[in-house]
Design goal:
mainly alpha, 2 strands, two-stranded antiparallel sheet, about 210 residues
Length: about 210
C-alpha cells in the first residue's frame, strides 16, 4: 500500500486515506494531495467532522443489547438519534435527528448506508450489507404481531444494529485511537434494567399480557 508523510503531523498515512487518522488533516487540503495520476479519494462530510473531534455514538455492544431489551426498544431510538445527530453535526443538511430516530424502521437503511460509505472510504473491510440489515431490522420490528411465544423475537431488534456498531467503533478508532467505548451503566441505566427486566420477566412468564 502506497504511503506518504502527512504535512500536518509527519506520520505515515495511506495516499488513499480521506484524512490523516492521527491529526485529521483532510486529503483535499492543498498540502495533502495524492501523487499525480492517483485518483483523489472521496472525502465525506463525516470525515471532515472527524477532523473537528466529532465522533459516532460509541456505545458498547453489550450495553446496546441490554438497554434495548429492557427498554423494549426505546434505547434504539436514542441510538439512532445519536448517530443521526453526528450526521447533522458533520454538516449534512436536513437530517432532523429526532424524526429520523422515531421513524427508524423507515430511515435505518439511510443510516446504515452512510456508515458503510464512511467505512469504505476509510479502508475498513466490511462483511455486512446495509440492505440486508435494514430488512432484518424492519422484520424484527414487526415480529411483535406473531403469536405467543414467537412475538418475543421482536425484543432482539438490537442484533441488527450490532454489525453497524462494530463498524462505528472502527471508524472512531481510525479517527482517534483515544476515543473510548461507553460500556458503563449509569444509575438511570441500572434503574431501567431493574424495572424493565422485571416487566420483561413477567411478560415471558405470562403474568402480564403483551
Amino acid at each position: 500500500m502506497a504511503v506518504k508523510s502527512c504535512p500536518g503531523c509527519g506520520k505515515q498515512v495511506s495516499v488513499s486515506a480521506p484524512s490523516c487518522i492521527y491529526c485529521g488533516r483532510l486529503s483535499d487540503s492543498p498540502l495533502f494531495q495524492p501523487p499525480t495520476g492517483t485518483p483523489e479519494p472521496a472525502v465525506t462530510r463525516r470525515a471532515r467532522s472527524i477532523a473537528g473531534a466529532e465522533f459516532y455514538f460509541p456505545v458498547a455492544i453489550h450495553k446496546l443489547i441490554v438497554m434495548s431489551v429492557v427498554t423494549f426498544g426505546l434505547y434504539q431510538i436514542y441510538w439512532f438519534y445519536k448517530q443521526w445527530k453526528f450526521m447533522e453535526a458533520s454538516g449534512e443538511p436536513g437530517v432532523r435527528p429526532l424524526l429520523r430516530a422515531i421513524f427508524s424502521p423507515l430511515t435505518c437503511y439511510g443510516l446504515f448506508r452512510r456508515i458503510r460509505e464512511d467505512a469504505t472510504s476509510a479502508g475498513i473491510p466490511l462483511v455486512w450489507s446495509a440492505t440486508a440489515l435494514a430488512v432484518l431490522y424492519i422484520l424484527l420490528n414487526v415480529s411483535f404481531r406473531l403469536p405467543s411465544p414467537y412475538f418475543l423475537i421482536c425484543y432482539t431488534q438490537a442484533l441488527a444494529l450490532v454489525p453497524v456498531q462494530r463498524t462505528v467503533h472502527e471508524l472512531n478508532a481510525a479517527a482517534d485511537p483515544s476515543v473510548g467505548i461507553d460500556g458503563g451503566y449509569s444509575d438511570a441505566n441500572i434503574l431501567g434494567i431493574i424495572i424493565g427486566g422485571g416487566i420483561m420477566a413477567l411478560i415471558i412468564f405470562g403474568l402480564i399480557p403483551r
